[in-house]
Design a protein that fits this description.
279 residues, alpha/beta, Immunoglobulin-like, Helix Hairpins, five-stranded mixed beta sheet, four-stranded mixed beta sheet, 6 helices, 11 strands, binds copper (II) ion
């Protein structure tokens, strides 16, 4: 089965390259890790915008305030109550008001955080009722394969581009793949995620998706890309010696471009055994 799939993938790589050159050229936007980058990648989906808000506006200021408060307490204790400044220490052991305060205040802070975080976790987890398209993603040692279950099970493998090919194509090293996952913009995409050998994790930071790919289990995630462009992610579960070399390249294109792409891929695939039938 592997050999049939590889042959199909090889044929598709050629077709895919031709289509990529014609209809998917010149992405307007790319999301990828950058040298010296700080913070989260720019959001390209509503869920990722909420995650960024939760991280940047809700959590980060709280963490900064709490860390500074604890630092101030430590400095105060060190300066005011050292052996020289305070030679005769007090002997009391309990202070009821302060013990109630340092129990209640953290509880209130955590409840406040959960008010924002629980609904967000729920929205991340629950795929919307109306799904426009389903793509099944399978992690292998060490590449990803994609199956367009709504399009006659059209499937292909995506392998990392070697350094020289990535450089020649003007694509980022260790992130670009020979075949990209392609989805239409402003469409709700259900991603079904599994693995064929060991546990991998399909992660696409700009879309706010990170989901374990577990052999024998079909996990589900979803995203809705708000802008066209090329987005990069990586396997995020240590899965073996080439774990760092199974990146994810996602192209978000207009619906018309997607329709043209899938039609071209399917016609290129005619006459070869497709992934779904080859199982
Ligand atoms: Cu992996």
């Amino acid at each position: 089965m592997r050999s049939i799939r590889s042959a199909a993938a090889a044929a598709l790589t050629f077709a895919g390259t031709a289509v990529a050159a014609s209809s998917l050229a010149g992405p307007a936007f790319a999301a990828e890790p950058v040298p010296g980058g700080l913070g989260l990648q720019p959001a390209a989906s509503p869920i990722m915008r909420e995650i960024a808000f939760f991280h940047d506006i809700v959590l980060l200021p709280l963490i900064v305030v709490i860390s500074l408060f604890v630092l101030a307490l430590l400095v105060w204790v060190a300066v005011r109550y050292n052996k020289k400044a305070n030679p005769v220490p007090a002997k009391f052991t309990h202070n009821v008001p302060i013990e109630i305060a340092w129990t209640l205040i953290p509880i209130l802070i955590l409840v406040g955080i959960s008010v924002v975080s629980f609904p967000l976790l729920y929205r991340e987890d629950q795929t919307p009722e109306k799904v426009d398209m389903t793509v099944k993603v399978t992690g292998h040692q060490w590449y990803w394969s994609y199956e367009y279950v709504d399009h006659d099970g059209y499937a292909f493998d995506a392998n990392m581009l070697p350094d020289a090919e990535a450089a020649a194509a003007g694509k980022p090293r260790l992130l670009a793949t020979d075949n990209a996952m392609v989805v239409p913009v402003n469409a709700t995409i259900r991603v079904q995620i599994t693995a064929s050998d060991v546990i991998h994790s399909w992660a696409m930071p700009a879309m706010g998706v990170k989901m374990d790919a577990v052999p024998g289990r079909l996990n589900e995630a979803w995203f809705r890309a708000e802008k066209t462009g090329t987005f990069y992610g990586q396997c995020s579960e240590i899965c073996g010696i080439r774990h760092a070399f199974m990146p994810i390249e996602l192209k978000v294109v207009t619906q018309a471009e997607f329709d043209a792409w899938i039609a071209a891929q399917q016609s290129a695939d005619a006459g070869t055994v497709q992934f779904a039938q080859a199982q």
